[in-house]
Design a protein that fits this description.
Elements lengths: L1 E8 L3 H12 L4 E4 L10 H4 L3 E2 L9 H18 L10 E5 L2 H16 L6 E4 H7 L9 E5 L3 E2 L2 H14 L3 E3 L4 E9 L2 E9 L2 E10 L5 H6 L7 E11 L10 E4 L5 E4 L5 E4 L5 E2 L6 E2 L2 H14 L8 E12 L5 E4 L3 E2 L1 E5 L9 H12 L27
Parallel strand pairs: 1-2, 1-11, 2-8, 4-13, 10-20, 11-21
Antiparallel strand pairs: 3-7, 4-6, 5-6, 9-10, 10-11, 12-15, 12-18, 14-15, 16-17, 19-21
The chain binds flavin-adenine dinucleotide.
Length: 385
């Protein structure tokens, strides 16, 4: 039996940011990761890496503001190159109607505390992105937003956590959470892993899209669903064509240019999840749809070829915002799950907030993300298996 103060299950960007912030405060942390850090098909490997506040749910606003402030210093703090670039985020309108909606949207974003967001007319958009499609008539810009490499960021958090004393068990699946007590007053006291049993004062479930399986084993039903989200990367174009990350209002697309010149296309196009919930198959129609949307917004994409496509498995929660915090009736357990396709950007703030919460400090910025809003109380849940 191994003893630790905090056991984190899952070494993705969320689990590793939490481990890093806990280790920084001097806590004893063990991270149990089934695979290596940030490998296919984990969301933190597949992610588009957009660092965005625009369009966030108000419940995430405080974390998003904190994270965007933190991102410019993250590389120095973690002592790693994570390909961070503060190129801004551009939400674009392709009709007069959409342009009017965007003007109201930009004002609403400022009211949410995103002070730099402003509306741009066609000439201003063209100045920012000279090659943008001629039908683009306006945009809402969020200059402090940006992009980074998700796998590099995740590995940087993991390495920094270990540097500060956290232990990582990779290639180590967690088979089950260990419970004591009875229905309605269950205590989570550790986990069974392929390297043996672990006893912990606190357990953090951060196993991404697979968290529901471990939760089900203790009779906890997490209202979230696994999705295969598809990405497409182009062959490298000349660098410097596109600085901000672009999303059109009326199309499923996020479009950015990577450091090597390749365009990276996302936007929530679906692939198919394998029956074992560990693999996926690509949908050619999703590749074609995503590519067509990108070519319409930035014709320079059409001069390239599809170099690679892939999927990441991500959990979308019932209300499409994450569940972060303790769960009533499951003492000793904290969940950080259901990031719904936008957890990467806020990961630095999530790690800080969960570490503070575990230390007993007030964290009002997590109030709107508490599992209590949608998770049924323990006595309405099925009994532990
Ligand atoms: C295609 C795609 C594009 C995205 N684009 C963006 C974006 O532009 N901006 C943004 O902010 N967000 C984006 N996201 C979302 C973001 O990437 C995720 O919210 C975030 O990476 C989730 O991190 P995680 O640590 O919770 O999950 P994961 O990265 O999936 O990590 C969970 C880890 O738990 C491990 N694990 C699972 N079960 C067990 C077990 N039983 N025992 C031990 N280990 C286990 C897994 O192996 C995995 O490493 C995107 C997601 C996808 C899929």
């Amino acid at each position: 039996m191994t003893h630790t103060e905090v056991l984190v299950i899952g070494g993705g960007v969320i689990g590793s940011s939490i481990a890093y912030h806990l280790a920084r405060r001097g806590h004893q942390v063990l991270v149990v990761e089934r695979a290596q850090i940030a490998v296919e098909p984990a969301a933190s490997w597949a992610s588009a890496g957009g660092v965005r506040r625009q369009g966030r749910h108000p419940a995430e606003a405080a974390l998003a503001i904190e994270a965007v402030t933190h991102w410019p210093y993250l590389e120095a703090e973690l002592d790693a190159d994570v390909h961070y670039r503060q190129g801004g985020n551009l939400l674009v309108a392709e009709s007069a109607d959409e342009a009017a909606q965007l003007a109201a949207f930009a004002a609403q974003q400022r009211e949410m505390g995103f002070a730099d967001v402003r509306w741009l007319d066609q000439a201003e958009v063209r100045e920012l992105v000279p090659g943008i499609g001629e039908q683009v008539v306006a945009a809402s810009t969020s200059p402090a937003d940006g992009q980074a490499d998700p796998a590099l960021t995740t590995r940087a958090f993991a390495a920094a956590a270990q540097h500060l004393g956290a232990t990582y068990w990779t290639e180590t699946p967690c088979h089950a959470l260990v419970v004591s007590g009875s229905r309605g007053a269950i205590r989570i006291s550790g986990a069974l892993t392929s390297r043996g049993d672990v006893a912990a004062e606190a357990v953090v479930l951060a196993a991404g899209a697979w968290s529901d399986e471990l939760a089900a084993g203790i009779g906890l039903r997490l209202p979230m669903q696994m999705h295969a989200l598809q990405m497409v990367r182009s062959t490298p174009a000349p660098t410097g064509v596109l600085r901000p990350v672009i999303s059109p209002m009326g199309r499923a697309l996020s479009l950015k240019q990577l450091n090597n010149g390749s365009f990276l296309l996302g936007g929530g196009w679906p692939g198919d999840i394998a029956a074992d919930r560990h693999g996926y198959t690509l949908r050619p129609a999703s590749i074609a749809g995503n590519w067509a949307a990108a070519c319409a917004i930035l014709p320079a994409v059409g001069r390239q070829l599809v170099e690679r496509a892939w999927c990441g498995l991500e959990a979308i929660s019932a209300d499409e915002i994450p569940l972060i915090g303790p769960v009533a009736g499951f003492e000793g357990l904290t969940v950080a799950v259901g990031f719904s396709g936008h957890g990467f950007a806020i990961a630095p703030a999530v790690g800080r907030a969960v570490a503070d919460q575990l230390a007993g400090q007030p964290v009002p910025e997590l109030d709107g993300l508490s599992p209590a809003r949608i998770v049924e109380p323990a006595d309405a849940q099925p009994a532990p298996r």
